Amino acid sequence: MSDYNIGILCQIRNIYHAIADFENRFIKAHDLCLNEGMLLCTLSGTDRLSSGEIAEELGLSNSNASKVIRSVEKKGLVQRMLGNEDKRQMYFLLTPKGKTIISEIKSEDIELPEMLKCLIKK
After folding, report:
1. For residue 122, what pLDDT is reported?
2. Where are the strands (E) in the chain, listed by range?
3. Are the C-beta atoms of residues 17 and 10 closer than 8 Å to each other?
């Protein structure tokens, strides 16, 4: 492996550590992991999404997306809704409590680790 590749790998490791640090602070502030927060963020931009659409938007497997959905459901932030045309289809949407949490997150000035500041545009 070249020195260039080692450098890239080390930078990715540093980014991973910065994201983990950010997630730890996010959990303390909101009692949500990043995937849960990103799910709420994704749902805030739409009326409803299926679990498959959520998985695609979050870049998760269907199994992992289901775990995240169940977690925010247990917290009362997301609710299920049957499809109008196909009663087998399940959709998810924010509850009023979920909307409140998203509003709080949107109004908060989130401090990013230095490593991430150059990667995230405000």
Report:
1. 60
2. 49-50, 78-82, 90-94
3. no
Each residue's pLDDT tens digit, 25-72: 999 999 999 999 999 999 998 989 999 999 999 999 999 999 999 999
Q: How far is CA 119 from the centre of its chain?
A: 17
73 CB-side CA count, 13 A: 13
CB-based contact 93:48 (threshold 8 Å): yes
Phi and psi torsions of 111, nearest 5° = -85, 120
Residue 59, domain CATH = 1.10.10.10
Range of the domain at 22: 1-30
